[in-house]
Description:
Layout: H1 2-24, H2 28-43, E1 54-55, E2 61-62, E3 71-77, H3 84-98, E4 106-112, H4 120-128, E5 135-137, H5 141-150, E6 155-159, E7 166-170, E8 174-177, E9 183-187, H6 193-207
Parallel strand pairs: 3-4, 4-5
Antiparallel strand pairs: 1-2, 3-8, 6-7, 8-9
Amino acid sequence: MIQRFVRTTVLCAVCVALAASAQIGPSEPARADAARLMNELMAGSVPVGGPFILTDQDGHLTGPEEWRGKVSLLYFGYMFCPDACPTALSDIGAAIEALGALGARVQPVFVTLDPQRDIPKLRGDYVRSFNLRFLALSGTEDEVRRVALAYKVFYEKVPLAGSDHYLIDHTSFTYVLDSKGQYVGYFPPGTSASRMAEQLRRLLAEES
Length: 208
């Protein structure tokens, strides 16, 4: 079941990711980078994910090794994201709620792509508005980039004309790690909370 889940969601996610990037208008090299990362993911030619350590909103070092025994939902985004991030995090929170008691076996994780602006206190308040179990992780720019690239996440800063502000163009997937911290697939943007809950129920049953 998990292998079919991985293949179908990857194919859907490629189309959605490139469409989302085009809305902000990235450069051709940026589009090429996004396509390369997705191709690597689809082909299975390189490993996806892997162990890492970042800092949560309470100042604790954590990573997949610390979440063993739970299925983890990993989302890369940023707090100033106007639409994709709050929508995805809301769906993750709703999926966990829909699982009822099983939700205690799911660890939701937000990794900021904007460590400069997403300071710890703000990150904690932000993610806990979606689900109290959320961890909000950050690190140095280099640390965050290493983790993002390991999961084939494309992102780049997009300056807003006439100001010092910027948005971050990024792919918007929810990665699934099993109870051993291994990557097993992801949900593409727009996956409903009910669909997530259905797939998570099956994965949790397989891991029991």
